[in-house]
Amino acid sequence: MRDAISKGQQRAKELKKNQERTMGKGGRGISSATAISSSNSHNFASADAALNSSSTSSYVPKTPAVSAAASSKGGGKALKLGANKTVSEDAFLQQLRSEGQLVADLQKSSIADKGKPVIHEDRSPVYVQAIEKLNASVSRNGGIESAEILGNVSLNLTESEFNTVTLKMKCKQVVGTQIQIHPNLDKQVWQKESRLQLKSIQKPYPLNTDVGLVKWRNVLNEEEQLPLTLNVFPSESADGCTVNIEYTLQKEIQLSEVVITIPLPPATQPIVSEVYGSYDYVRSKSQLLWTIPIIDSSSESGTLEFSVPNGHSDHFFPVNITFTSENLICGIEVEDVINHDGSDSVEHTLHSGIVVDKYEII
After folding, report:
1. How confident is the model over 194-217, as pLDDT tens digits?
2. Which range has the worst mean pLDDT, 48-57, 108-117, 202-211, 215-224?
3. What residues make up the domain containing 275?
4. Which pTM does this prediction carry?
5. Fewer beta carbons below 10 Å: N end or C end of the chain?
6. Is 76 within 8 Å of 70 (Cβ atoms)?
7. Which segments constitute the MHD domain (predicted)?
């Protein structure tokens, strides 16, 4: 392709010389030469775009589907490398998307993924999930605006020999928890023995389908009912703002991958003077990310202190919190999976825990 471009450039020079000679002879043949020159210039632009697209592909991998679509359109635009080295993360991602790349917001995906259940690829034919989702909005001055926990247990089977199994449950139900079981399950067995058992084995569970067996809801009225609380205390002064934040673990559980996101005044870099865990300043989003890998009984509280040269108290809200946990809050747990007649335990994979849909200090 480079050879073609080089030869094309030489040919263009020859045509230009011919055009100059023609003009010297009274202007004959000008239209013809101009048309040829214009045509060659267009070809060069196409060749340059194709060459740039080819050289860029080694830096920006494409999925097969995107590559096929791009080639059918003649290569499309090429990503400019080395231009504007101070471009922000958001601008870079937008440029990739505009050129047909299948990319996601790196910051959002890294944080959002921390609040999603992990799907085990090596799970057994009997797969059980017990998940609680937390939604909470808490006032910066103390007190819950709204908060609830939604829980459910689901079953997924891949082999028909297990399609009538029973789940033994452990219920130390928290006050205020409302529970509902699937209509095809035996309510009397549930009430007497805390077992999720089919009314009739003539109506077995379907295969390769997530079947919800029991669900519950608990509305929280006090901050002490939350697994983790935050005290966010910004102080304004003539030199700017100083912000102190303290977390407190409220339950005897372990929280993992805790990320606390604090908004900042625009174009203001914070100066961190104290932190338990680690922090990251995301300039493109004007955010400070406070990360604590694990919070448990050995780290029930921790603080972050930072200052900024400008701004006011409202700039630091809402504060968002995400975390995961293998523990549940409402006291409903899967103890075992057994045969329908209760004779033997059945090998199974159990995934249980808490995820955060939304938890913010406003």
Report:
1. 999 999 999 999 999 999 999 999
2. 48-57
3. 228-325
4. 0.66
5. N
6. yes
7. 123-362
